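To whoever is on call:

I kicked off a structure prediction for a single chain this morning and the downstream step that reads the tokens threw a length-mismatch warning. I double-checked the sequence; it's 84 residues and nothing unusual in it as far as I can see. Pasting both halves so you can look.
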Amino acid sequence: VSEGCLEIGYGVAPRKRGNGYAASAVAAILEVAANDPSIMTVTAQTAFINKASQRVLERNGFSQVGRRVDPEDGDIIAWEKQLR
């Protein structure tokens, strides 16, 4: 992760999924990050098969910026949101 970049990660317990907790948490992180002038970009990664997390990031304004294959996790999508 480069200077001025904040990488986020999150997870939600299976019984609590689908209630908007992840989307709300990501939105709150973005709000705090936007108020920190040293943070220019927020990044995240999702598994290609994790459509719910992809939707969370898309709804919060992230864009896909790349893909890679992780030996343990398989196909991974890299995401980014520019703050400044």
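Update from on-call: the warning came from a stale cache, not from the record. Cleared it. Sanity check on the structure: DSSP finds two helices and four strands in the chain.
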